[in-house]
Every structure is written in structure tokens, then in C-alpha cells.
Specification:
The protein is built from 6 helices and no strands. The chain is mainly α. It has one domain: Four Helix Bundle (Hemerythrin (Met), subunit A), CATH 1.20.120.680. Helix 2 packs parallel to helix 4, helix 4 packs parallel to helix 6 and helix 5 runs antiparallel to helix 6.
């Protein structure tokens, strides 16, 4: 879908009077961009003699960042597809009691499924932020500002994804699931923002 087309097409559709791509997809894009910045820094570090002492760890970060980039890029399109399933469920007939029951069940299933994509975006971005603690210290200092950009974009992805999780949770009837997910996203957001703030602070220290 969008992943194989132009950035202009994506931006035009995101800006247009269309249901999708929306915030969940855009949050995934932010995460993919953040991951790409981490990968770039790692790529300018690995295989270079002056960084030989940290080569193994930076290669680990590079693999993680590339996996994260590819996952979040796929989430851009997945979020659009999931939103369409929610819309289709709400458009189901509701004339008879049987139709109402089927529609209600379909809506709940669609909402739970739609929640999973931004939740995975949040989880993926969070896990990569943890690596930035090492990358900001080990990465090629000529690209130190890009580690900061990575942190900023990954936090944006997390906050945007969180909004899209919460708006689905609002309509999900499974109270236990709702509470479990709420606790997870609050904890991961707090941890990621704390680490990202430290990372960006270190970037400023190094470039001042």
C-alpha cells in the first residue's frame, strides 16, 4: 500500500479528508524514521578501527534498529487496514437482535485488533530507545546529533501510538485487558521519555 509508494502520496492522503492514514499510521512512520537515524549512526560506526572496542555492541544495536525500522514501516500500512476493519464493523446491520449481537461482537473484535498495531509501535519504539543509552556514548561522534533526533522521533512515535491505543481502549469492554494495557503503556512511555531526555541532554553536552 503506502510503503511501496511515494512520500508525497502518503502525505497528501494523510492531509486529505480521508479516514486513513491517521495518527496510528503516522506514529509508526515517526518510529520508522527514528529507527533509521539510529541505524545511520550505527552504520557510520561499525567496521571502523577507531571504534573497534564497541563494534560488537554497535552491531547489535544496528540489527535491532533495522528490525525495528522494518516492523514500524509495516505498521504504517497495518494501521490503515485495521482502521478499515473497525469502520466495516460499525457499518454492519443492526435491525434485529441477532444482527445487533453480531455487530457488537464484531466491533469488539475489530477494536482489539486495531489496538494491537499502535501497541506494537509503542513497544518497538520503546525497546529501541533503551539502546540509545549506549549509542549516544559509543556511536560515531560526528553523527551525535542524529542520536538525539532518533530519541525525539521515537518518543513522538510512543506518545502518538499511546493516544491511538487509549482511544481504542475507551470502547473495549474487557476491563481486565484494558487495565493491563493501560499499565503497560504508562510504564513504557515513562521509561522511554526518561531515557530519551537523558540521551538528548548528553547530545547537547557533546555538541555545546
Amino acid at each position: 500500500m503506502y510503503l511501496e509508494n511515494s512520500i508525497k502520496m502518503y502525505l497528501d492522503d494523510a492531509a486529505a479528508e480521508k479516514d486513513a492514514p491517521g495518527g496510528g499510521s503516522v506514529s509508526a512512520l515517526c518510529g520508522a524514521l527514528g529507527a533509521s537515524m539510529a541505524s545511520m549512526v550505527a552504520n557510520f560506526t561499525v567496521g571502523r578501527e577507531k571504534f573497534a572496542s564497541v563494534d560488537k555492541r554497535v552491531r547489535e544495536i544496528l540489527k535491532h534498529s533495522e528490525d525495528a525500522r522494518n516492523k514500524m514501516a509495516r505498521f504504517m500500512d497495518a494501521d490503515v487496514e485495521e482502521y478499515r476493519k473497525v469502520t466495516a464493523a460499525y457499518q454492519m446491520p443492526k435491525t434485529t437482535d441477532a444482527e445487533k449481537a453480531a455487530r457488537k461482537a464484531a466491533i469488539q473484535d475489530a477494536l482489539k485488533s486495531a489496538m494491537k498495531t499502535p501497541l506494537e509501535t509503542l513497544r518497538t519504539a520503546h525497546s529501541l530507545v533503551l539502546d540509545l543509552k549506549d549509542l549516544v556514548e559509543m556511536g560515531n561522534p560526528n553523527l551525535i546529533s542524529d542520536v538525539g533526533v532518533s530519541a525525539i522521533l521515537l518518543v513522538a512515535a510512543i506518545e502518538g501510538a499511546k493516544l491511538n491505543v487509549v482511544i481504542n481502549l475507551k470502547y473495549i469492554a474487557d476491563a481486565e485487558l484494558v487495565e493491563t494495557v493501560r499499565q503497560e503503556i504508562e510504564q513504557k512511555e515513562f521509561e522511554a521519555k526518561t531515557i530519551a531526555t537523558e540521551v538528548v541532554g548528553k547530545v547537547y553536552e557533546k555538541i555545546a
